[in-house]
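Table 4 source record.
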Amino acid sequence: MNWAGTEFKSLDLGDASRNRRAIRLMDALSARPTASIPGACGYWADTIGAYRFFSNDAIEWPAILAPHIQSSVTRMAAHDF
């Protein structure tokens, strides 16, 4: 499993295809953080999918951030400060 798949394994956007698209996007965008969306996605179909994802009103950004926050808290808890 890639970084995004591990980091967002508890992601729930209400639809399995949305979850998969979100993880693919996070993986692509994190691999090329300075690239444009088309540059990061690489293929035209993935670029169109990204723009559709970003414009989907059914997607709640807090739902995307929640598993990332939880993963970060879990990682931090493993360290003494």
